């Protein structure tokens, strides 16, 4: 058995500190209520005394690892000394919840800490981090070693793409033999499976603070598979290592069988983040801090009675504590929850391993009871020149240098590859597509092709419902819209790339986040409410829900008068309870701190419902035929519906009319150009549109033509004959309900003369 100690910690309690604090005051001391941390989350009493000349800007810091200088690793938590309930000049007491962060801890008294200009300790703007210096430390506690370094922490699980499988995941300090044991009775483990492990290093991070002051060793990320689980059965399990330590025993309900006769109950949200639970019943901004004069929703001031090290984050994400508390209540009060959906902006750690640890501790009570299926948000993925969709037009730094690696290592999903962060899975009567809006999703991109292929293959007799997860919303009432990465622009990109695909393949809903509020559209296509079918009650288009109200500070720049395609808009923190069977989905949006239901709605399908993708395609074409020429031009560049069904045209038809296509293809798809030049007589319109889109998005396209207007003319002229074909199709579809556009085109193209060029 392979056993590798990643840290040698023996004797830490007595050894000399690796960090030298030059200004320690004689007589100043910090005492702890325990000589070692017995378990993660232990409450440790910290008492200090004998400090001369204390100031209002003094703070008690929790530093992990104890051996690291404050200059190289930020403290994981702090509290201002004045927050102590028994504060006297130079003395006081706090109780800290200390997590197992895989290294010994130390408490430090920092004097006259300098804070940012707005009175906060900033995390993600390093120029404001002037607070903590080794020279500020006037007292240090004994080092607090870990009594149980390999206690499993961050316990959570996910579904794979195979029915009856659950992948357990947890963190330890050292490499061991990751083991899950389970059985049908408490304490009786008839099954055991050994898995694998991984981790990430400072050098795996893409930038600061993830590879600077935010990094501490994140631990060994273990996983082990429970396969062949019986459906809808309560099991008892534990994870860990036979030689290190096992977790406590947990129990969970295995998922029901996949199929239309199955029913499921689950919970969904996005954008919640993490915060340190200070032990009060409920986090509430106004109650917690009478000293604060700032309005609700702005940053915490330094005198706030909040204890997280990043006080602004505590203020911004405090409502996440309400979410985890109420979801815990839901799960523990008899609701048979078998799934959590968490659609991006997970921890807002943004490069701080310490905040991921807070997250792991906060969510473990629910994530040990059912699998959680996530997608990356901007705060997990975005970093310049690492594959996000915004570079090079915009430098998006929202991940704090994590660039999707911390997320990808911590949570395993059935993705095509590590950095292709999208996947599908089935749950009861639903197929979920979980997408990454932080990576390219435009027409022809690997993700876009995967979406179309996956939607085409879903057996709707098996899973009548299809729900798509996207971090950024495809419809939003946000009016933030002045850059390539802003809400309005990305929503428009999503509609241009995917709305018609979702419509044609009868996606029932999209569930997004990112914009921090709750809102829900009518069944909508191209900003037009299409309502419900009068005969069977089914929705005539996808419904789009933004559940970005999970816990982070609200988005206040929403349109005060939202367009009419909104059925519901709320500014309240919460999550969604979902019940689904083969003919019915019911959703409740719950306000976390009160339990109030702020929105409730249902979708239905008749028994034996069958999709009608061709009918939807005809509808799309009819819809487009009413567009003006200008709109047609825009559609031609951006529309994917135009090439969802492969349509072939003689190459000569395009080239004879549009010699400029050589310029376009030489920039975007030289292979296609060569194929056509090699006398391949027929071209797939899909490839042409794809090449045009690539050209349109290629900055070189604009620099190699005199001006953007000229480039646009190229495209317009080249697309004109192709668009006419679709107008013809639409007219036929309107006149003949049984019309099949693919057959029509095939017939039209049959006998087309072989063309050659060159
Ligand atoms: Fe976001």
UniProtKB/TrEMBL annotation:
Organism: Apatococcus lobatus
Subcellular location: Secreted
Family: Belongs to the metallophosphoesterase superfamily. Purple acid phosphatase family.
EC number of this enzyme: 3.1.3.2
Superkingdom field: Eukaryota
Name of the protein: Purple acid phosphatase
Subunit comment: Homodimer.
Classification lineage: Eukaryota, Viridiplantae, Chlorophyta, core chlorophytes, Trebouxiophyceae
Presence of the UniProt keyword Glycoprotein in the record: yes
UniProt KW keywords: Glycoprotein, Hydrolase, Secreted, Signal
